[in-house]
Structures are given as C-alpha cells and as structure tokens.
Write a structure and sequence with these properties.
single chain, alpha+beta, seven-stranded mixed beta sheet, about 10% strand
Length: about 450
Amino acid sequence: MRVPHYLAGLCLAAVAATSVAAPQPPRFETAARSVRLDGVRLGTDLTPSGYLNSLRFTVAYDPVDAQWHLWTLTANPGVYPTSGFALSDVVHATSADGYDFTSTGTLSYGPGGVLPANFGATIDPPVSYLRAVKAGGRMLSLNYAFFPGYPIAMAIAAWPIRWIGLTQIAGSTLGGVVVSLVAALFAMFAIVELTGKDPDNRADGIRAATYLLIFPSGFFLAQVFTESLFLALALWCLVFARRGNWLAAGALAIGVTLTRATGVALVVPLAYLAWQAWDSAAGRARVLSILAAAVPVIVFAAWRISPLGQSFAAVEQAWFGREFLSIGKSFYNAYQAVVQMTSKNTQATIYFALEFAAIALAAAGCIGVARRHPDIALFSAAVLVGSLTSGYIQSMVRYTLTMPAMFFWLAQLGRRPAFDRGWSFASTLLLGMLAMLFTFDMWVA
C-alpha cells in the first residue's frame, strides 16, 4: 500500500508547530557568595534550594532580561524567615555581573503574587517575581497552565448548578467532578466499543475498563483533572475514525487537542487510520480523512502561536519545568530520580518505583497491542514519548491513565483467572493507598 504524501507534510507541520522557542527559566544561585548592594557588602548566606527558605538573600540570573536579580532585607528582623515581616522590608536589586547590585526599590504585592502575609518560611518574593515569567509587561497567572477544553466543560456543567445556591468556587468544583465522572463513564463505553463485538473481545473490553478504574491512580478520574475528559474524547475519536465517520472524528479531535498538551499526538493514529482506509475510500472520504488527521496539528499550531498558548508554554517552563521534547533535561532528571530511588529515603524509593513501574507498563502495553490495535498502540506511544520528554518523570503514574494501550494489554493478560485476581487485588490496594495519601494532601502524582 502506497503511503500518501500528505503524511510527511503532517509530520513536518507538527515539528514546525512545536518548535516555537520558549523563554529559558531563571537560574538561581545556590553557592555561598559575597555581593555588594549599593556599595555595601552583604553576607554570604544562601538557601540550598536557591529560592525557598532563604535565610538572608537570594540571587538569580534571568536570561529573559540578561540581568542578575537580588532580593534581600533592608533590616535584619529576628522574625525572618517567619511570616512576621512585610514586603516593604524586602529590596529588589539588579546587576550586570552578579556581584555589584543596585537597588530598584522594595517589593509590593501585585497580580499573580501571593498575599504579603504568606511570604515567609516557605515562600520567598522571588517565587512570584521570577518564576511567573513576564509577558507583555505583565505577570502571568498560573491559570495559563491549563488548556481551555476542560475549564470550558466545567463552566458548562457548573451553569445549572449555580441555581442551587452554591458559591462560584463550589459550583465550579462540583461541575469539574461531574465532567470527570461522566467522561470516565464514556471512556469505559469507548474501551468496550473498540475491542469489538465478539463475545471474547467484549469480555476483554469490560476487563480493560475495570482495570482503568482500579488502576493505582484511577481515583484521578473522579477529581478535577483532565485525564477523564481527554481519554473519553480521544477514544471516541478513534471509534468514529475506525467507522469512517471522519467528520465526527475531526470534531472530537478538536476537543482532544484543546484539553491536554499531548492531544496533538492524536495526529499519529488518525493518519494511520486514514492511510489504512485510503484505497477503499471515495474522493470525499479521502478529503475528510486528510482533514481529520490534520486537525490536531492545525488546532495545536493555532493554540501554540496564540497569546494563550505562548503564556501556557512560559508558565509550564518557569513554574513546572515542563517543555516540548526536552530530551536532554528529561534524561538527566530521570537519572536523578534513579539516584533518589536507590537512596535511603524510603518514601522516595516507593514513589519513584511506582513512577517507573507505570512507565514500564505503558511501554509494554504499546508493544502488547501493536498488532491487534495498532491505532491505540500508536496513540499511546506518542502520548508516552511526549510525556517522558517533557522534562520530568514525576506524575507519570497519573499521565499513564491517558495511554489506553496499557489497559487493553492488561485485559488480554487478564484472560487468565490467576492474573486477573492477582492484578485486581494488587492494583486496588495501591489505589487505596494513593487515594488515602491524596486525601491527606500528600503528593501522589
């Protein structure tokens, strides 16, 4: 079968759409150093992290303005670093060489910052000043860290809820939970649909949907997170693409791409399905298949070059250290994760063991269903690569919820009663443990 030339064009467009340069994050100085402020020498105390729990002052280099920045106290109040000091006690200064600084004034509360009373032992002024990257002369809110699809769905679901007297925040939260629960249900329907109508295949589908729910991070499907909506839209998009309903597939592809950054990965399975149907499709169907396969790239490119998309990339990089295809950084941080996992810190060992186990399961799932469900395998593999090369492996146990090949593969293994019972037992126990930790406001994923 001849590969249509448009596939190469889609790949080139995907690379071009995601190659827009994002600003480099600030680099915080962590080694002790002697600096001068307005000609007066300061001490050498620096926080080990560079910006948290600062004892006396913090120094950072910001590539955006090619300046060194200094934050220090005008006096030396004994209450610091508790929350008993005011922002007016903190001086901001700049320098070209990182040693001789000139003060620019005291800090004040501004948009995007935290309340002055919250600056203290755990939060320093540099956090809101530098890590919220400047764009167009304004500070960026963390609200820019989200694609618009899920918030729009939340707003729609919350609209009728407001009539029962809930506050805006309570109504929006409940709306988000409703969206996640309904989307999780439809994701399960799609999983069963994709496995086929044969009784054995249908049993695999039910088992895969069950494994999705009891996966250790499955409780996120009922939280105000995007995984449920993303998975439901993506799976139903593949359902309609398999049926040859390219108009519906393209419409759902728009929703997928606007829900999570990895939505652009949908171009891979859609292009594959369009290629498979190319010879048997009529002229109109061919055109629609090309358009449907191109939708993720077009929508993502339009989003990426928009002010919202540029702000998203800046906030993701500055606050979360995430960026597109940051391969070197991802390998380095994965190595650091291995070092922590093999340390004497039991919590770190368990946490990173779960993260690496989730990655291994997702990769095995892509291989395990490649022959039977190549479109699902391609989609899951593309999402996995995009997630792994975003800078860090943290949260992979949650991100793998959006890689359905893993659940299809586990369902095939689950045909053996021993595996089915063993996996269900172990997965449910881990689900309970992580849900409990999450309930107590501990980091899970």
